[in-house]
Amino acid sequence: MREAVVVEALRTPVGKRNGGLAGVHPADLSALVLNALVARTGIDPAVVDDVVWGCVSQVGDQSSNIGRYAVLAAGWPDSVPGTTVNRACGSSQQALDFAAQAVLSGQYEVVVAGGVEAMSRVPLGAAREGGMPYGPRVLARYDGFSFNQGISAEKIARKWGFDRTRLDEFAALSHERAAAAQDAGAFDAEIVPVPVDGAKVTADEGVRRGTSAATLAKLKPSFQEDGVIHAGNASQISDGAAALLVTTPEKARELGLTPLVRYRAGAVAGADPVLMLTGPIPATEKVLRKAGVGLDEVGVFEVNEAFAPIPLAWLAETGADPALVNPLGGAIALGHPLGASGAVLMTRMIHHMRAHGIRYGLQTMCEGGGTANATLVELAS
Questions:
Q1: Nearest to 30, CA basis, from 70, 82, 86, 77
Q2: Per the database record, which ranges form the Thiolase C-terminal domain (predicted)?
Q3: Is 366 a member of any domain?
Q4: Of 2, 65, 335, 357, which has the most beta carbons under 10 Å away?
Q5: Which domain range does residue 280 map to?
Q6: pLDDT tens, position by position, 83-124
């Protein structure tokens, strides 16, 4: 039976809104990580069967198949195709799943999976400006709910009984862990510096050192006057890109490359679209069942911190060890460049697994509309 392996995983720093990466076109930001893959692995880009690229807001600078324009911006041969995937925040995680599935099926030998989002240039919600993508029938089915993720996060916090202090403590921990990871050089091997105006952006920009529950308590709720969700316990609006090279173990040997991890299983689950962001719970159960791996066998989890209640609800339902969840911080501290986030989290997790000899890693991502991806990878021997 064929196997799929990841032989390299790289990302840009995650830039804060209107920060160091704001002036970089998303095609050029994508090209940077594509060419970093080539430089790191020594492959000829002509061997790549496809580039599968996640992006959420596919308008403006990110319109008209940004995956293809990323390939062209990188200067790769015209013969290398590219396609763009949108599964909301899970877009580049889905890109990895599609890439692995293509390799496993025998249709492709070498695939690049990844994604980009330049939220400073293409603002959140720009893709549906003036429109109503869910339509009147969906509104009627769910009693006119606005499908606002912030309101959904409020509902989740109430359902699981998380008060403002608990959420802010979790958010502060995200910053604490991210700062410690930066100081320890945990991200150095995976980050591709971005040249900007004669200088280079070399580190994630969103980390706020010294953040505490007490400092976060001063922030006003963002979605409801008496709510518990605010800018400090939600993910940051960000810019970034990431890419992973996927192939078979046999092709890796032919190319002189060493696999980092083996793709074990991927799953997608749907959940209540009003609560919207609880999909990682059934997706996790589904991917573990498919892989035949127990939760207690997994040594690291990346559960995207879209809002603090999401990983907390996931923890409450799965019973996973909190110390193993987002050990390097998450999107609250490090940012959430939508279509790139799945690939960013996977890159971060793979390098953490390699550094610490962790056999299994599981990544899961909540998504607008009530879906979620979960992916399980195993350390390659």
A1: 70
A2: 258-378
A3: yes
A4: 335
A5: 264-379
A6: 999 999 999 999 999 999 999 999 999 999 999 999 999 988
Residues 71, 81 contacting (CB under 8 angstroms): yes
Tokens of 346: 């996977």
Mean pLDDT of 324-349: 98
DSSP alpha helix (H) spans, the chain: 26-41, 66-73, 91-105, 135-141, 149-160, 164-183, 213-216, 249-254, 280-291, 309-318, 331-334, 338-356
Provide the b/e sequence for 7-26 (b: ≥16 CB within 10 Å).
bbbbbbbbbbbebbbeebbb
Say yes or no to pLDDT of 129 above 80: no
Return the structure tokens found at 65: 């198949």
**Gap between the Cα atoms of 315 and 362, Å rounded:** 13
Note whether residue 277 is domain-resident: yes
Residues in the chain: 381
> Is residue 84 domain-resident?
no
Residue 371, H or E segment: strand 371-379
The vertex-226 CA angle with 223 and 230, nearest 5°, equals 45
CA pair distance 328, 175, nearest whole angstrom: 9
Distance CA 104, CA 116 (A): 25
Q: Which of 5-14, 94-103, 145-154, 248-257 has the lowest mean pLDDT?
A: 145-154
Total domains in the fold of the chain: 1
CATH classification at residue 273: 3.40.47.10
The residues carrying an active-site annotation are: 89, 336, 366
- Residue 373 has φ and ψ, to the nearest 5°, of -100, 150
How many CA atoms lie within 13 Å of 276's alpha carbon, on the beta-carbon side?
22
b/e map 196-230, b = 16+ CB within 10 Å: eeeeebebbbbbbeebebeebeeeeebbeeebbbb
Cα-based distances in Å from 91 to 131, 174, 337, 367, 372: 21, 23, 11, 9, 10
d(CA 146, CA 308): 21
